[in-house]
Design brief:
Number of domains: 1
Helix content: 25-40%
Number of strands: 12
Structural class: alpha/beta
Largest sheet: 8 strands, mixed
CATH architecture: Alpha-Beta Complex
Shape: globular
Number of helices: 9
Strand order of the largest sheet: 3-2-1-4-10-6-11-9
Order of helices and strands: EHEHEHEEHEEEEHEHHEEHH
Length: 247
């Protein structure tokens, strides 16, 4: 029998935090799920740890990639292997609250939403820093100016819109995927409070703000094909929103 939800978690040298992230999925109050762990040629023991979880819980599946491809293409491999109606994402250092899936799926049904996200709490080694409050809903043009959706908070309904994949760029692939979904649906909806804890680490990809800024511009121009003028307008709004949510 197919699970209701497929949770995709890419792994790359993730052994420090992955156990806590995995358990936050397996301990969900909504248990009808599969967890697909995609190892991207880790050089630590991430793959062996993933296999251990698969032996302990039949809901865990492991995909080992033959070469390193990055986070976006690793998630694509998980999406390809997914059998659930709903596709959800969790990074290997983030944590879900126990009611995350139950609350978000319930609100998706209430709102007839095919694409949803939640607020999230940002934390580091010193503890939680700030809760990111997201807009009630976002359409394509609003998201271009406010990249508010956290990857580990997202669920989309693959039964209604088909499987959607991350674009083939090395970084900011999540932003590219959200935009591609919003070309097909009117809105993404906030369907829950801060149900995800997002870990900020020194040296993590997402902590490199210059890289994020560079690839956001690349999304505008090369992935979405926006004009220079439209890109500049969206980019200026993006910078303002990014400054407003600094911690």
């Amino acid at each position: 029998m197919k699970p209701a939800v497929s949770v995709i978690m890419p792994l790359y040298n993730s052994s420090e935090f992955m156990d806590e992230s995995i358990r936050s999925v397996l301990d969900q109050s909504f248990p009808d799920l599969e967890l697909i762990l995609v190892d991207d040629c880790s050089s630590d023991d991430s793959l062996s740890r993933a296999m251990s979880f698969a032996k302990e819980d039949q809901r865990v599946r492991v995909e080992a990639l033959p070469e390193n491809v990055g986070g976006g293409l690793s998630r694509n491999a998980g999406i390809s292997a997914a059998s659930g109606r709903y596709i959800a994402f969790l990074d290997s250092d983030d944590i879900w609250q126990k009611e995350k899936l139950a609350v978000q799926l319930s609100q998706m049904r209430e709102k007839n939403a095919v694409f949803s996200y939640t607020d999230y709490a940002v934390f580091g080694r010193e503890g939680e820093k700030k809760t990111r409050t997201t807009p009630e809903k976002l359409n394509y043009w609003e998201l271009l100016r406010n990249t508010a959706i956290g990857c580990s908070t997202v669920i989309y309904d693959a039964e209604r819109i088909g499987k959607k994949y991350f674009p083939k760029i090395r970084k900011r692939q999540d932003f590219g995927l959200w935009l591609s979904i919003l070309r097909d649906v009117d809105y993404a909806y906030r369907c829950g409070p801060a149900l995800t804890r997002y870990r900020v680490r020194q040296g993590s990809v997402s902590s490199n703000k210059l890289v994020a800024i560079t690839y956001t511009w690349k999304i505008y121009r090369e992935v979405e094909g926006l004009s220079l003028l439209t890109s500049a307008y969206c980019f200026s709004s993006y910078i303002v929103f990014a400054l407003l949510k600094r911690w």
